[in-house]
Write a structure and sequence with these properties.
Layout lengths: L2 H4 L9 E3 L2 E3 L12 E3 L2 E3 L12 E8 L12 E7 L17 E3 L97 E2 L17 E2 L1
Parallel strand pairs: 1-3, 2-4, 3-5, 4-5, 5-6, 6-7, 8-9
């Protein structure tokens, strides 16, 4: 980080920013815990390894940001994230309701107990991510990659998981009541204790051998 970026926040003692542009700034490994951003724009901004615990991103736009290894635990993220890299980031307990993500890499990220109600997560990469206990209700996860993801106790009620890749995922105790599972691939997934009441699937949905979705009250359409 250069000296300009190092001193960028000095003039803002209250750690609150409204309608600011952070273009190309490098805040790698900075302690930005509790910082609050409203209506700000981040483009090619680097937060690699930054401490963003409890930070707030309200109505912000983040484009091509690097948040690898960043800690966003307990953060409030009501923002649009486009083409971001959040590999191995921590979002445990974060409030991400209504967040919009497109072309975002969350490979091996931690989202334990994360609140993602009404989130738009189409075609994002959550391979090997841990969403145990996350609340992902009424969300759009069409085409999402959840290959080998940990989804124990995750709640996907009334969400759209059509054409999702759930191969090898651990869905122990996962709730998918009322979810759209058209074309979803559950090959080699662990479905012990999964709750499927009212979930809908079609001829293109792929189940692991020996699993019968109708026994868990899922509906074929």
């Amino acid at each position: 980080m250069d000296s300009e970026d190092q001193n960028y926040f000095v003039e803002y003692p209250k750690n609150q920013f409204t309608m600011q542009d952070f273009i190309g700034k490098d805040f790698s490994n900075r302690d930005l815990s509790g910082y609050y951003f409203s209506g700000c724009r981040f483009e090619k901004t680097i937060f690699w390894g930054a401490n963003l615990k409890g930070a707030g991103f309200l109505k912000c736009t983040l484009i091509d940001v690097d948040m690898q290894y960043a800690d966003l635990s307990g953060a409030c993220i009501c923002a649009s994230i486009i083409s971001g890299n959040l590999q191995r980031a921590k979002l445990n307990g974060a409030d991400c309701q209504y967040v919009g993500m497109s072309e975002v890499n969350l490979n091996k990220a931690q989202l334990l107990g994360t609140f993602l109600d009404n989130a738009s997560l189409q075609k994002i990469n959550l391979e090997d991510a841990d969403l145990s206990g996350a609340i992902v209700t009424r969300a759009n996860l069409s085409g999402v990659n959840l290959n080998r993801a940990y989804l124990t106790g995750t709640v996907f009620d009334n969400s759209d998981l059509s054409n999702a890749n759930l191969r090898g995922a651990n869905l122990h105790g996962t709730s998918m009541c009322g979810a759209n599972l058209f074309g979803a691939d559950f090959s080699d997934a662990f479905l012990y204790g999964v709750i499927m009441i009212g979930a809908t699937y079609d001829k293109n949905t792929i189940w692991p051998g020996g699993y019968f979705p109708e026994q868990d009250a899922a509906l074929f359409k």
